[in-house]
Amino acid sequence: MNSTEISAVTAANAELYAAFEAGDIDRMSVVWDPDDDVVCVHPGWPPVSGRGRVLRSWSVIMANTVYIQFFLTGIVARVEGDVAVVTCEENILTGVADDAGGLAESARACATNVFRRRGSEWRLWVHHASPVIAPSGPSFS
Amino acid sequence: MNSTEISAVTAANAELYAAFEAGDIDRMSVVWDPDDDVVCVHPGWPPVSGRGRVLRSWSVIMANTVYIQFFLTGIVARVEGDVAVVTCEENILTGVADDAGGLAESARACATNVFRRRGSEWRLWVHHASPVIAPSGPSFS
Fold first, then answer.
1. Is A60 an 8 Å CB contact of chain B?
2. ipTM value for the complex
3. Beta-carbon count within 10 A of B63 CB
4. Any chain B CB within 8 A of the CB of A124?
5. Which one of A68, B5, B9, B76 has the largest count of C-beta atoms within 10 Å of its C-beta?
6. Minimal CA–CA distance to B3: which of B79, B75, B74?
7. What's the CA gap between B86 and A80, in Å, rounded?
8. Of all helices (H) and strands (E), which one includes residue A129?
9. Which residues of chain B lie closer than 8 angstroms to A89, CB-CB?
């Protein structure tokens, strides 16, 4: 594990959220690993398996998202051989299209993103995001 | 990736849930990787990082669990070098201690469990479990 690897993995992780923010399914398609053993868990959802189903799920979510912006905190990237695991907290600002004229809402989630090395690229193998319900983190320190 | 590896990873995954069901923090301690870069997301929680904090979180959860039983479905194990990723659905039966005399409750969650190879053992590196809120899986097939 070196700083160049960590930078590349962190950039791949950022691109996942940038593609979502841009609502760009072509960029999202490049983010994901080409193999069919990919899995994606959207917050509150059961797992979606397989490249086709995963990308269709993103298309549906993007089509139903007026505006979304991610502020990632607590990003930790780990590399072990050709696999990288990134954990982060997603602080989310969304635009809500309602009759009153589009208010903003915020939400908090956390994610585990597992990447696989493909040549010089890191491609997303597993994305697992879940809602953070606790108002602030319990402390076990 | 061969069937012996997949069997070993699947057994390591089963032991996580067996240790929890038994309320045995010593077994849970062996399940987890010895390094300090472990992360654990309990359903609805923010990430808990570091071996000490992760094991303390399990101690607290076990102390507050009267009875729990897991029925795992959709288990898929993948191995890439010295890293394994298991995804599964957790169908949970819990005993609820209430004034009326302990009714059972069921819950549904899904998990991503990332293991690291340590000699001949597979140790848990990242556990991410989240509630499944959708009544049944959306279909994108």
1. yes
2. 0.89
3. 9
4. no
5. B9
6. B79
7. 16
8. strand A121-131
9. 46-47
Task: Return the closest-CA partner of residue A132 out of B61, B38, B43, B56.
Answer: B43
Residue B141 pLDDT grade (very low, low, confident, very high; cuts 50, 70, 90):
very low
Render pLDDT for A5-22 as a digit per residue (tens, 0 to 9). 999 999 999 999 999 999
Q: Is B49 left (phi over 0), alpha (psi -120 to 50) or beta?
A: beta
Residue type, A133: I
Tell me the CA distances in angstroms from B109 to A45, A69, A130, B70, B103, one per residue in order.
9, 26, 10, 10, 20
pTM: 0.91
Output the six-digit token pair for A36: 């069919």
**A contact test, residue of B130, B132, B133, B141 with most A CBs within 10 A:** B130
In A1-141, where does DSSP find H-type helix? 3-22, 25-31, 51-63
Q: Residue holding tokens 């570091």? A: B50
Closest C-alpha among B89, B82, B124 to residue A128:
B89
- DSSP structure string for A2-36: -HHHHHHHHHHHHHHHHHHHHT-HHHHHHHB-SSS
Contacts 24+ apart (CB under 8 A), A22-26: A23/A62, A23/A65, A25/A55, A25/A58, A25/A59, A25/A62
* pLDDT band per the 50, 70, 90 thresholds, residue A141: very low
Taking the alpha carbons of B25, B118, B12, A115 in that order, is the dihedral positive or negative?
Answer: positive
Contact B111, B87 (CB under 8 A): yes
Indicate the fold that domain B3-131 takes in CATH: Nuclear Transport Factor 2; Chain: A, (3.10.450)
Question: Which of A44, A49, A114 is facing B85, going by the closest CB pair?
Answer: A114
